[in-house]
Amino acid sequence: IDRLRMPYSERIDYCKNKVSAKLFKIMLEKKSNLCIAADVTAVSELLDLADQVGPHICLLKTHIDILEDFTPDVIQTLKDIAEKHNFLLFEDRKFADIGKTVQLQYNKGVYRISSWAEIVTAHSVTGNGLLDAIKGSDNDTKGVFLLAETSSAGSLINGAYTQSTIKMALQYNELVTGIVCQNPLFTEHPGLIQLTPGVQLQAGKDNLGQQYNSVEVVMQEKGADIAVVGRGITLSTDPAKSAENYKKLLWNAYLKRIE
Ligand code: 6AU
């Protein structure tokens, strides 16, 4: 089995996590493997962006804690926009604490992440307790993307850590939607989804260590199933048009990969 050559439609049968299957279906319906990183700090900007790029994305990735004017009613509006455009809400919380603390961070506080985010990110660094904490909360409608590599320069993650993270993902396959990484690490597991950030039209970097590959490279060489694009879209003059362009480029690169 080679995940990279298999159409998304066939991979649904291998999904152990319900959200993965749901996500593949949305991707196929919308012909989109684009996740927007909606890294804006004003609620109005977030809601406008979500509504504008909504038709072109399968996932809206938030850092909900960067909003300067967050109020709990923002969540219902965001949910309504997600339903209108058929995408999933994905909070990039990168949980990385002991199980008990993660349980509190996931369910409590101002953001009550578990009440709205169908998918969250987590680091594997603290071990199984963290995933047990997320799993233990009321649901089988939730998914986790585990970080096995990062896009940033000088990351301390090494090969052994990355491999152990994949093992953890397979051990928790009912909860884990996929892996955040930069390379095709688990080609023999078509039920897991590879989410790859650090994507722009051209390779490059920012001034704080972020590193970008092009759409073609991430999809065809690096094994991405879903590409995360933030500033490539959010800083463009027309985010809707830009998102549509990324969507088409990413989908064509995927079609070429499975040819
Ligand atoms: O396209 P950008 O650089 O504007 O945004 C990239 C987004 C940011 C990061 O928090 C996130 O992707 N990210 C992640 C994720 C998704 O977990 C991991 C990583 O290794 N690199 C990265 O940039 O919202």
TrEMBL record:
<keyword id="KW-0328">Glycosyltransferase</keyword>
<dbReference type="GO" id="GO:0006207">
    <property type="term" value="P:'de novo' pyrimidine nucleobase biosynthetic process"/>
</dbReference>
<comment type="pathway">
    <text>Pyrimidine metabolism; UMP biosynthesis via de novo pathway; UMP from orotate: step 1/2.</text>
</comment>
<keyword id="KW-0808">Transferase</keyword>
<keyword id="KW-0210">Decarboxylase</keyword>
<comment type="pathway">
    <text>Pyrimidine metabolism; UMP biosynthesis via de novo pathway; UMP from orotate: step 2/2.</text>
</comment>
<keyword id="KW-0456">Lyase</keyword>
<protein>
    <recommendedName>
        <fullName>Uridine 5'-monophosphate synthase</fullName>
        <ecNumber>2.4.2.10</ecNumber>
        <ecNumber>4.1.1.23</ecNumber>
    </recommendedName>
</protein>
<feature type="active site" description="For OMPdecase activity">
    <location>
        <position position="97"/>
    </location>
</feature>
<feature type="binding site">
    <location>
        <position position="231"/>
    </location>
    <ligand>
        <name>substrate</name>
    </ligand>
</feature>
<keyword id="KW-0665">Pyrimidine biosynthesis</keyword>
<keyword id="KW-0511">Multifunctional enzyme</keyword>
<feature type="active site" description="For OMPdecase activity">
    <location>
        <position position="94"/>
    </location>
</feature>
<dbReference type="GO" id="GO:0004590">
    <property type="term" value="F:orotidine-5'-phosphate decarboxylase activity"/>
</dbReference>
<feature type="active site" description="For OMPdecase activity">
    <location>
        <position position="92"/>
    </location>
</feature>
<feature type="binding site">
    <location>
        <position position="210"/>
    </location>
    <ligand>
        <name>substrate</name>
    </ligand>
</feature>
<feature type="binding site">
    <location>
        <position position="151"/>
    </location>
    <ligand>
        <name>substrate</name>
    </ligand>
</feature>
<feature type="binding site">
    <location>
        <position position="61"/>
    </location>
    <ligand>
        <name>substrate</name>
    </ligand>
</feature>
<feature type="binding site">
    <location>
        <position position="230"/>
    </location>
    <ligand>
        <name>substrate</name>
    </ligand>
</feature>
<feature type="domain" description="Orotidine 5'-phosphate decarboxylase">
    <location>
        <begin position="33"/>
        <end position="246"/>
    </location>
</feature>
<dbReference type="GO" id="GO:0044205">
    <property type="term" value="P:'de novo' UMP biosynthetic process"/>
</dbReference>
<dbReference type="GO" id="GO:0004588">
    <property type="term" value="F:orotate phosphoribosyltransferase activity"/>
</dbReference>
<feature type="binding site">
    <location>
        <position position="39"/>
    </location>
    <ligand>
        <name>substrate</name>
    </ligand>
</feature>
<comment type="similarity">
    <text>In the C-terminal section; belongs to the OMP decarboxylase family.</text>
</comment>
<comment type="similarity">
    <text>In the N-terminal section; belongs to the purine/pyrimidine phosphoribosyltransferase family.</text>
</comment>
